[in-house]
């Protein structure tokens, strides 16, 4: 009997190792696709540059900056100053919004929750609109968007908190209320703006990477990657939170503390991304769904998978936005057009898997 029990344990352990190895292989494959896709998309555009030239320019800047002057000036400017920072920003935003979506869905135990549920997008939109119409108030549009995105979440969290607790339903309702108020303020800003300012507000709200520069990358990338790393490190606690507050307490996890940590980090990531590139829809809702369909419910694997899928997806959408027409299409339009049918396809695939 003891030998049989030992054999079962060994078999179970081997099975678990196999499934974990499979999940890690998927993560490494997605990382390869993201890096390769980023390199390929740098080659594409109105002015096409070969893969070898792109690699040479990037490698020269990183490993031999003293000979950058010997590079072709036009190609160097296109690759290093325009396309490369844009691709890095696209990957970062895809990673940030996807992980924020996965964390929100885990905290709220609701697969339909997305990063803008607490009024982040509306607050950021108002801050950006305020910066566009009254530029003397803020040093930059991004700063205004960032500050009001954080303010919206702070207000929602403050309104929802009662007797030392923050019920999920109350928090979501508070977020909807705050979002509606800021949406009304955005309408007021549109009314007060002139034609040029109105166009800028509309284009910012549709999202895009057209103005991305290295300064934006240096600000956004560290905040997003550090926050994502922390959320991934505590992925097992998110698994516990997904079971419910009572179960979390029974397992020794304080749900209030860790919900607060997760929500603050996810909101910080969303606010930084939105303030840099505008509103990019669907990513935070769709990528966590796709990751769970592939990897299962374990957030230790869902978070990195959603992050990498988000990076690949935004690269793909940004490439379409740049190359479909002579005039660049705002990426928010592309993510909406591509995202809705893709999510429907994923749900259909899951339905067939369940019902045969």
TrEMBL record:
A GO molecular-function annotation: transmembrane transporter activity
Topology within the bilayer: Multi-pass membrane protein
Record's function text: Required for corrinoid utilization. Probably part of the ABC transporter complex BtuCDF involved in cobalamin (vitamin B12) import. Probably involved in the translocation of the substrate across the membrane.
Spans traversing the lipid bilayer: 26-48, 84-104, 116-134, 141-160, 166-189, 219-238, 258-285, 301-321, 327-347
UniProt xrefs under SUPFAM superfamilies: ABC transporter involved in vitamin B12 uptake, BtuC
One Pfam family of this chain: FecCD
Gene3D superfamilies: ABC transporter involved in vitamin B12 uptake, BtuC
InterPro entries reported in the protein's UniProt record: ABC_BtuC-like, ABC_transptr_permease_BtuC
Subunit architecture: The complex is composed of two ATP-binding proteins (BtuD), two transmembrane proteins (BtuC) and a solute-binding protein (BtuF).
A Gene Ontology biological process term: siderophore-iron import into cell
Protein name: Cobalamin import system permease protein BtuC
GO cellular component terms, A-Z: plasma membrane
Subcellular location: Cell membrane
Key words of the record: Cell membrane, Membrane, Transmembrane, Transmembrane helix, Transport
Family membership noted in the UniProt record: Belongs to the binding-protein-dependent transport system permease family. FecCD subfamily.
């Amino acid at each position: 009997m003891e030998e049989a029990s030992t054999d079962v344990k060994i078999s179970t352990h081997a099975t678990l190792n196999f499934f974990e190895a499979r999940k890690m292989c998927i993560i490494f494959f997605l990382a390869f696709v993201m890096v390769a896709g980023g390199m390929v998309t740098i080659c594409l555009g109105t002015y096409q540059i070969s893969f070898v030239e792109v690699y040479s320019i990037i490698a020269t800047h990183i490993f031999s900056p003293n000979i950058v002057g010997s590079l072709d000036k036009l190609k160097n400017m296109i690759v290093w100053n325009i396309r490369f920072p844009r691709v890095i920003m696209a990957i970062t935003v895809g990673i940030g919004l996807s992980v924020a979506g996965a964390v929100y869905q885990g905290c709220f135990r609701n697969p339909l929750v997305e990063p803008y549920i607490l009024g982040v997008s509306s607050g950021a939109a108002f801050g950006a609109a305020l910066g566009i119409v009254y530029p003397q108030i803020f040093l930059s549009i991004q700063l205004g968007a960032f500050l009001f995105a954080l303010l919206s979440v702070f207000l929602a969290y403050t309104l929802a908190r009662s007797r030392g607790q923050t019920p999920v339903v109350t928090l979501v309702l508070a977020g909807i209320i705050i979002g509606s108020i800021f949406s009304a303020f955005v309408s007021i800003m549109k009314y007060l703006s002139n034609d040029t300012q109105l166009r800028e507000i509309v284009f910012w709200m549709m999202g895009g990477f057209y103005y991305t520069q290295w300064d934006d990358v240096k600000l956004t990338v560290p905040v997003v990657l550090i926050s994502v790393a922390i959320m991934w490190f505590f992925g097992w606690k998110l698994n516990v939170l997904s079971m419910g507050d009572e179960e979390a307490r029974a397992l020794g996890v304080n749900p209030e503390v860790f919900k607060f940590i997760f929500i603050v980090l996810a909101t910080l990531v969303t606010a930084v991304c939105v303030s840099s590139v505008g509103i990019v829809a669907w990513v935070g809702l769709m990528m966590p769904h796709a990751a769970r369909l592939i990897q299962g419910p374990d957030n230790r694997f869902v978070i990195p998978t959603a992050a990498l899928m988000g990076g690949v997806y935004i690269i793909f959408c940004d490439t379409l936005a740049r190359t479909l027409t002579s005039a660049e299409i705002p990426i928010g339009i592309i993510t909406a057009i591509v995202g809705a049918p893709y999510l429907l396809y994923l749900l259909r695939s899951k339905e067939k898997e369940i019902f045969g």
